[in-house]
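Re: Re: token formats

Sure, here are both.
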Amino acid sequence: MSETCYQVNEKFNNMHIRNILEFYHLGKEKRAKCEFLLNNNYATLETLVRTDDVLTIIFSEEIDFIPENKHINIVYEDEYLLIVDKPAGLMVHPDDKSKTGCLVNYVAGYFKAKGINRSVKYLHRIDTDTSGLVMFAKDILTASYFNYLISKHEITRSYYAIISGVMNPEEGVIDLPIGEHRHINGKRRVSKTGQSAVTSYKTVKRLKGGNSLVYVTLSTGRNHQIRVHFSHFNHPLLGDLMYGGSQKLIKRQALHSAVLDFNLPYTLKPIHLESPLPKDMKALV
């Protein structure tokens, strides 16, 4: 069993516990599996709350990936969130929970060492060869709320990429739908029948050899979105063999998840997090 406590915000004054859970988009199925305490007294979904009451949600869960005692670079942590700077070459999660060697296994090891007996809830993924910031929720209410925010594109995720050549214009928005490649499994392409994909970019610096460092912000989160969009204009990311990039200067796609901007769910405090360029990309710049 896991317990998570929340101080009731004034906007929920004189509302039911059910209203709080609905606001944070916790589904009915999970609501039904929760138990509640209000100021340490048993409560139900229909119990009224007051400002500054302490709501405790009790939920049956445990660590769900095999824990590994490996170092993780923690950029931000509080009672509800954990944000980690992932190195290139490390998968976020395995295709089978019986496997190890992924970021979720390292986070599970960290949870175990800290006595946190909860499932590992990654909120988004980045490619194995992409470095940078990855978000994890520590409880079901935070996970539910951030999954909703991500689906509505209300969390800003920005990247640094090194592309071949120079985009013309050097700043702009790429609004082209992306779908699956018809002939290559796992590859994506610009497609009229694909899902909406919007990428904003700005050239930060022209590099030696005619390449460019660009700052990219996503309005949508399609698989391989940045890689597909720049490749479509014949400016593939350096190192990205799948989409036409060269590995002469770097052995993986030159893409780094550099910035996260969001508001904390229970206080609405704005959070701005940055991860510096990793050594291989910094060397090219």
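Second one below.
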Amino acid sequence: MAQTVVFQWSGKNPRGAVESGEITAASKEEVMSQLRQKNISPTAITEKKSKSLFALSMGQPKVTPKDIVVFTRQFSTMIDAGLPLVQALDILSSQVENKGLANVLVKVKTDVEGGATYADALRKHPKVFDELYCNMVAAGEAGGILDTILQRLAGYIEKSMKLKKKVKGALVYPIVVSSVAILVVAVIMIFVVPIFTTMFATLGGTLPLPTRIIINISNFLKGIGGLISLITLVALFVGISRFRQTKKGQLIFDKILLKLPIFGLLLIKVAVSKFTRTMGTMTSSGVPILDGLEITAKTAGNKVIEIAVMEVRSAISEGKTIAEPLSKAKVFPPMVTHMIAVGEATGALDTMLNKIADFYDDEVDNTVSNLTSMMEPLLMVFLGITVGFVVVAMYLPIFKMITLIK
């Protein structure tokens, strides 16, 4: 089988506009054949040079959502002020702080100058501008309201960032405290308990049961048992991660996450907020409902919700409303489906979706606050009991010895 490589090409379409892109093929002849099938007359075909490992590690800085928000707002202001698209891109490509984004904007500007639409130029950079962003830009260009759409996009990305930050904040605290507890116990077991064990060995007699348990655990961790435990944990983590990457594993894990007593409720509220915010923004921007649902499903972040949204999309393509199949999916709370039904009936679906998103943003805030307040004492109790049991177990023989001396 012939080895395939990536070729960069440029050419003219039937309208005479310049287009460019990349094609993976075995030879230049194959690239030319593929381009002719697309009615493109190639003007240049070059093999793309692969970057070395060092070059990849020292590559361009990652483009963050914050960079996209700043660029989008600035670009919207320039378009609203009447600046031509190419001129606005030229100005921003020279002044954005992120060099990776600057290089992308230069390429976008070149494509737009060559006759491509702004949305099509953005689609060539999916790692920077996702499908939602490109579809909304396309709707803005078609409707002549690109500046308004860009403002909505910036607002949407900002609210998504805040939501993500809240969820991360809720998860970081218990993970940090639990990790500290495990580290403290491990240090006590491996370094402190052996000192007491040597001292107890000179006393003779039978040690209390809690002390014997702690000493046995310490001996196990200090010897080959510690290495076995570490290897087992690493293997378990790698195995779970690999299984999580499969479709079946992702579905199973996402089902479990949504059914968790405390975090499950938080994840459902986050999913509702994200779904309604995305759909509301896209609907008000003129993106077709079926395209909007497909993009929303892909960006859901949970396989269970993704499947439910895609089922809703299939039902809508058959002529049904959004609320009816969404209620049958039993993923979102009844209040959400009822409000969506009202929005569809009154012709104000986008407004209703944004109201639901605002409501659930507040709900996520409250849930995160309550969760943090509840987790603090629980984690402190867990840490106190764990460390306290070890300390008491170590001092029991000493108390017993003092009693015998008296």
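Residues 65-158 form a domain with the Receptor-associated Protein fold (CATH 1.20.81.30). The first helix runs from residue 28 to 37.
- S.
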